[in-house]
Specification:
Immunoglobulin-like, 2 domains, globular
Length: 235
Amino acid sequence: MFPPRRRWAREAGINMGRIADALWAPRLPQKWRAIQYIESHDEVYRDRSPRIARLADESNPRSWYARSRSRFATGLLLMAPGMPMLFMGQEFLEDKPWSDDPGMDERFLLYWAELDGRDRHMTDFLRFVSDAIRLRRLHAGLRGEGLRIISVDEGNRMLAFQRWVEGVGHDVVVVASLNENPLYGYRLGMPYAGTWVEVLNSDFYDHFPTPSAGGTADSSMASTCRCMASPPLQS
């Protein structure tokens, strides 16, 4: 499980090293045995902890801040070793608490109706999660045992790690940023020389398809989770 949930206030210090340490459970003999999650029925039950979007911005769970933090957290969940668990509604940016009482009012019901286009942020987020799951299924490296932390940059709030299949390859590098400003010319050492192809950029799904998502061509990174693979994926 990822680190204890707390309010991600803009002023709060975020420990990227702690996030890196939570990517896998060292006490388990194999990484795939870990059940990874950031929301569960115990934590987001009514009157307990808020869901990720509202945890990030309790005043507006549809703000850019809430959306970007939700993509960051969910992206890491789906790229980390182990078996990812999504709680109901998490895949489309649900911010309501959960209740097992069918008699509760609509404050605890999922926003199913908003997925018909009335809430663009929800449909954009669902597309992002769907594509991230598809990427995990297509690329064996994201399901393998290999994990190596490449960089933990506390100053820039950046984290990078490598995934692969032991003894085979299928390497993927995941770069995640909580920096609120673009970082142009940011240099990151890759596992080995060669061509690395960007196969997922979470910023692309904000007001999908956004033309302003910084890619590897300009090395712009701001509040994003992205994947680069070598060799390129075959669809």
